[in-house]
Structures are given as C-alpha cells and as structure tokens.
C-alpha cells in the first residue's frame, strides 16, 4: 500500500512543524471554535503581542489559519480544509500500518 498525498512534502513539513508547538496548537484550537483577533489571542498568553503574532504567522504560513482584515484589526480563523487534508494524511498512514500489522498477524498465524 502506498500513501497518496494530496499535500506536498514541503506542505506536510510546514503543517507538522507548526503543530509541534503547544502555543500554536492552542491558537489553532481557539480559532477552530471561534474567530479571534490577534489582540484577543495575545491576551490569553503570558507572552508579548509580537510573539503571538509570530505564532499566528507560522500557522498562516502552514495554511492552518487565515487572517482577514476587518477594519483596523485582523481576524484569525482556522482553515478547516487544511486541517482535514492533514487528517486524511494521518488516516492514510494509520490504514497503512493497520494493513502491515494485519499481514504480520496472518504470517504469524500461518506459521502455527
């Protein structure tokens, strides 16, 4: 079984590098449940506005969130399609490993 990817290797790297940080995962969780401004997000963390802005930029670069101008503010919103594409990739790997384990079980059972 070959895992077919709808994401390039570079996209996969950006997504999972972005998700490797707990703050970014939390920002993604918050923006998946409701839109937020960068200022609203920054208020939730014990770090500077600029640091939160950098975290949002990493998520945006990975395609996990979008920033939409609304007046003088920027609304941060999770991108469910990119999240779904990453999930499908993980599901394909799960299927691959389940298939390999099933084949190994069958080989071991045949030896008995």
Automatic annotation (TrEMBL):
Positions of the HTH arsR-type domain = 4-98
Coiled-coil region(s) at which residues? none
Protein name listed in UniProt: Winged helix-turn-helix transcriptional regulator
Q: Which SMART domains match?
A: HTH_ARSR
Which Gene3D superfamilies does the record associate with it? Winged helix-like DNA-binding domain superfamily/Winged helix DNA-binding domain (1.10.10.10)
Known PROSITE patterns for this protein? HTH_ARSR_2
Recorded hits in InterPro entries, A to Z, give: ArsR-like_HTH, HTH_ArsR_DNA-bd_dom, WH-like_DNA-bd_sf, WH_DNA-bd_sf
Native species of this protein? Protaetiibacter larvae
State the Gene Ontology terms under molecular function: DNA-binding transcription factor activity
- Domain of life assignment: Bacteria
- The positions making up the signal sequence are none
Which is a Pfam family this sequence falls into?
A: HTH_20
């Amino acid at each position: 079984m070959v895992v077919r990817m709808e994401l390039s290797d570079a996209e996969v790297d950006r997504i999972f590098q972005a998700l490797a940080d707990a703050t970014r995962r939390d920002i993604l969780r918050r923006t998946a449940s409701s839109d937020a401004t960068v200022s609203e997000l920054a208020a939730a963390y014990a770090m500077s506005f600029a640091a939160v802005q950098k975290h949002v930029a990493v998520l945006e670069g990975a395609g996990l969130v979008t920033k939409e101008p609304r007046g003088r503010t920027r609304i941060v919103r999770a991108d469910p399609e990119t999240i779904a594409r990453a999930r499908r990739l993980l599901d394909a790997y799960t299927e691959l490993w389940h298939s390999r384990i099933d084949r190994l079980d069958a080989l071991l059972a045949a030896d008995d």
